[in-house]
Design goal:
The protein is α/β, with parallel strands linked by helices and 373 residues long. It contains 13 helices and nine strands. The protein has a nine-stranded mixed β-sheet, covered by helices on one side. Helix 1 runs parallel beside helix 2 and helix 2 packs parallel to helix 3. It is globular. It binds iron/sulfur cluster and FE2/S2 (inorganic) cluster (FES). The site of FE2/S2 (inorganic) cluster has 8 residues, from helix 12.
Amino acid sequence: MTALPGKLAAPVALLAELTHRCPLGCPYCSNPLALDTRADELDTSEWARVFSQAAALGVLHAHLSGGEPAARHDLALIVAHCAKVGLYTNLITSGIGLTRDRIKELADAGLDHAQLSIQDSDAPSADRIAGYKGAFARKQAVAEWITHACLPLTVNAVIHRANILRAGAIVRLAVALGARRVEIAHTQFYGWAFANRAALMPTAAQAESAIAEVEALKKTYAGLIVIDHVIPDYHARYPKACMGGWAKRGLNITPSGKALPCHAAETIPDLVFWNVRDRSIEDIWTNSPAFNAFRGEDWMREPCRSCPRKTIDYGGCRCQALALSGDAREADPVCHLSPHHNKVLKVAVLAAQGEDAGAAAFSYRRMPLREPA
Ligand code: SF4
Ligand code: FES
């Protein structure tokens, strides 16, 4: 393992966005507004080099994500390389594009874990949210193939106004699908999701009721399934420690090789992102201006600078601070101590209680799986 300067610890995880291509059109898509094309994607050998460098630096977990990573025909080769260099591999998938044989191929290549997204516990609603007819039924089959291949399964669901009344039912569905872990993550409102906020933002009452139900289910299902609950921070007093702190625990690599401290970092103007085509993972982690921009506490302003929680939440989410206050150096406005907190309330209340709220049509995210030759 490489020795790093000063007190800088090695990243624990690398999230590889293998492609932005995706068969689904989720209205809360967390991919950047400008998507990488297939022609821009890193090839198999470039990804292999990235994972070798990451493992040498001390990374433990490789999260293989997208878009839909199954859209890559070399997925098993990538998994096999990660396994060879000693990385724990987690496939983050919509399930679309996977078959029983392909899952077995991935398991044989050394895949350690699969994380399957579901959009709802109600089939018509799930298909509507995904913008893909038949997605719900397909995902049921994929879950069975994953557990049949003896791979541990996590189910993850993004919660918003269109499914929030069934947050508990989604947990129960995950149990029925044989998942050992379920991630109930309330929508983070930036990028594509922010543009869809009138359709996605729950009311405060809906959010409170869903939080209570999911927290109660943690006790009901203790020992049977782990419930990871990312609460809706628009309705919280304090922000989350986004990414476990900026450039503290992990890094994201885009399909075209840009190294980001978080998946939405490109929304922050003036940050310079280095590319794995030009720089090593160690160089990026240690010296990239974007990674060093919000490391530590020197960048913080008041009220964070003198706040005892600054080593707990690190001032919250930089991307949300930018989206709501116009400045990424501000405290995350979700924090009730932020001078911009009223903007959170305004966005949440207007979106959740506006005339069109809930009835607003989804704006689907579309990225063709195949591009014209
Ligand atoms: Fe966190 Fe800053 Fe709010 Fe303190 S003031 S709780 S550090 S966001
Ligand atoms: Fe970028 Fe939170 S999403 S810091």
